[in-house]
Amino acid sequence: MAEIKKPVPSETGHHVTGKVAILYGTVKAVSPDGTVRLLKVNSPVFADDHIITGGDGSVSIVFDTFPPTQLDLGRMSDVVIDQDVYGSVSDQVTADASAQQEAIQTALLSGDQPIVLDATAAGGELSAGGGHPVYAVAPDWAEVTPGSGAETTGITWGAVNLTDYTPTIAQNNPPAVTVDTGNPEGANDVVSEAGLPTGSNAPAPAEPGHIFAPDASAFASGTFTLSDPDGLAGIKSVTINGITILIADLGHNNVINTTIGTLTVTAYDSVTGIATYSYQLTHATTDGPGTEA
Q: Which of 100, 159, 271, 290 is most buried, judged by most C-beta within 10 A?
């Protein structure tokens, strides 16, 4: 025997008021007893449920009212489904529904099915075998160009713009040394063996074993200047006749001995790069014509 049942309260004690029609993202329903449910399309929604949408969630709920009503919730919503939300059914509607239910139940129990469907708004009547309404769609060939949204041109691979970079390496100009002898027109220093105590112009000793001091012709003096296009701070040392002198020590009476004389750097100015020197001939030598470095 067929029986039409009335809606009954859910196991938690609150009845179904509607269902989820549309859902995006994460949407939760929290029952009065604290039970948490993740909703999806067609999930039932109960009275007094606490509907919470996440940062990416939105939901549309259709309520079982007459006529049906719909609730749309966007992101970060928090709503309690109470009577203020889904509304209540009037006594007249409830009475009419109960009367229709009893009439249908009586007809089913008697074996007769006096079910008459209302006439459709358009089209012919349904056949005795049943069916569904047929809707005719007449295109009007209207054309609309969307003004927003993602282009549907597919993925394309564009050409990569390549740029050639040519590194510029700064030229490291070497430092230079310029000698200023202090002589007219920059003439070279000249020392003479005649100025030596044993030189060709040395006087005869007044007494045996007496040695005369060298005269001025055995000495020379002048300056030399250090320069560097990158700055004097880049010069770390100076090498003279194979002897390397740290720039911090230059000018502190640096002595450079040779086979025939002694060069002494007596001073150096680190700001101007000018150093002062003196040279003393100590031994005679036989040289050819020209300048001796």
A: 100
Q: Half-sphere exposure of 150 toward its Cβ, with a 13 Å CA cutoff?
A: 4
Same domain, 15 and 89: yes
Task: Considering only residues 118 and 59, tell me which one the structure prediction assigns the higher pLDDT.
Answer: 59
Looking at the 3D structure of the chain, how many domains does it have? 2
Count of residues in the chain = 293
- 221-243 CB burial, b ≥16 within 10 A, e <16: ebbbebeeeeeeeebeebeeeee
Q: Is the Cβ–Cβ distance between 81 and 40 less than 8 Å?
A: no
Instruction: Specify the pLDDT at position 8.
Output: 43
Cβ proximity of 54 and 21 under 8 Å = no
For residue 19, which of 79, 90, 69 has the smallest C-alpha distance? 69
Instruction: Give residues with Cβ within 8 angstroms of 263, minimum separation 6.
Output: 240, 241, 255, 256, 277, 278, 279
The answer on 260 and 188 residing in a single domain is yes
Let me know if residue 202 belongs to a domain: yes
